[in-house]
Design brief:
The two termini are about 15 Å apart. The protein has helices at about 1-45, 50-55, 70-100, 105-130, 155-199. About 75% of the residues lie in helices and about 0% in strands.
């Protein structure tokens, strides 16, 4: 009877792990599509030199690469990176509000992607809690995200495109990382639980 109970708990936790991760992946793919449309809309709204603007290097944007050796560290890295982009999206929105008409589709798309990004960070947090119950996800050690100093209009346009392009890179990395976790973490949890029953 104890074995059956343990098996049920193991299967239930594995299913919860898979469901949580699948939901997170689904939202990631949605935002990936939205980010492609957002960049197109951004370029179309910046004038004739938009392609040139988007080729200029900017160093005040978060790194899109996921770090960490263990799955727990990599999940935390995903969460931290998503959180780091929140103030950058807010800054870009504020800048573009001054440069665009209130009815500009760019502003609506920026709001949508920013909201979905915050929701994605929440889902990543919930997934972390599924794997590591009662262990709060660590907050960034470096303090608040640093934003660039005041910028002129040209710098604002360059910065905005850099934020959106880098965020798109981050989403690609997050999607790849989540697929890797899906094949390793959730399945391994089931395998470990089953092995424990017989040894």
């Amino acid at each position: 009877m104890a074995v059956d109970s343990t098996r049920t708990v193991a299967a239930s936790r594995n299913q919860e792990c898979g469901n949580s991760l699948q939901q997170t992946l689904k939202l990631t793919r949605l935002i990936q599509k939205e980010s492609v449309d957002l960049i197109k809309t951004y370029k179309a709204s910046q004038g004739e030199i938009s392609e040139l603007l988007c080729k200029v290097s900017v160093f005040s944007v978060p790194d899109p690469n996921i770090s960490g050796l263990e799955p727990s560290e990599r999940i935390v890295s995903i969460y931290t990176h998503l959180q780091a982009f929140v103030p950058h999206f807010k800054r870009v929105y504020e800048q573009q509000t001054d440069l665009q008409l209130p009815t500009s589709p760019l502003l609506a798309r920026l709001t949508r992607v920013s909201t979905h990004s915050r929701n994605l960070a929440t889902l990543v947090n919930l997934f972390y809690q599924t794997l590591f119950p009662n262990v709060p996800i660590p907050e960034p050690a470096g303090g608040p995200t640093e934003l660039p100093p005041p910028q002129n209009v040209f710098q604002q346009k360059v910065y905005g495109c850099a934020v959106l392009k880098t965020y798109k890179e981050l989403l690609a990395n997050v999607s790849k990382e989540l697929r890797t976790l899906k094949s390793k973490v959730c399945r391994n949890r089931k395998r470990i639980q089953i092995n424990t029953l017989y040894f």
